[in-house]
């Protein structure tokens, strides 16, 4: 059950075909097929089955792939911990951030961190909250910058930063705002901000029209263009508020206080702790839970 075989199975699951998995791994298609066949032989159950001209995972294959992801993540985590244990400033840090945090708070933090510790091997993945928490659960990320982590996720909140969500719109839409009839411009499914907006409307028992635009930038642009109101971080629209393209809507119960969280697994690596110490020192973050765990 070599690491290469596990990577072949995960690549096949994530790309949907032997050919695409081979391209991702830069190996031959026959190498991918042989690796998955060998895994199935070792385990004693079929992991894939024919579907037309391609293959799909069997129920057993889907179950085993979830474990394979975690095993591969743990191996990467172990490498990162070993490298950082010798010298945190030369270790590896796998960051994952929700799109809004990546847009608003991460660029300046990465720039100053890079300037101080240029030998840290940084990797960054950006996506909706559902993706980044999955990465942490699978040990594929060392640190997540996002909202509050799911209650069932084994995780350690190392630092937080204030973040207020406000309802905004173009001045004309803001002046005529009605909670139950004014359209809402929404993020894509899987976004934490979208879930918060949906919960906000449900709590007030209203169901206004919704327009899904699919990214934080598109939502802000849509609100400024007069398509409706949007729930966004105040930090994300400071320029638009300052120049009058957007106005804060006096919606009931807002602003919503939803701080950013810097979240690691239960055993943060030395390089993870180094990055968190940096954002506390220079980025307006507040340490949580006493001293950073060693």
From TrEMBL:
Pfam short name (any one): HTH_1
Record keywords, A-Z: DNA-binding, Transcription, Transcription regulation
Transcription regulation keyword on record: yes
Domain HTH lysR-type: start-end pairs: 1-58
PANTHER family: HTH-TYPE TRANSCRIPTIONAL REGULATOR (PTHR30126), HTH-TYPE TRANSCRIPTIONAL REGULATOR CYSL (PTHR30126:SF39)
Family, similarity comment: Belongs to the LysR transcriptional regulatory family.
Protein name: LysR family transcriptional regulator
Organism in which the protein naturally occurs: Actinoallomurus vinaceus
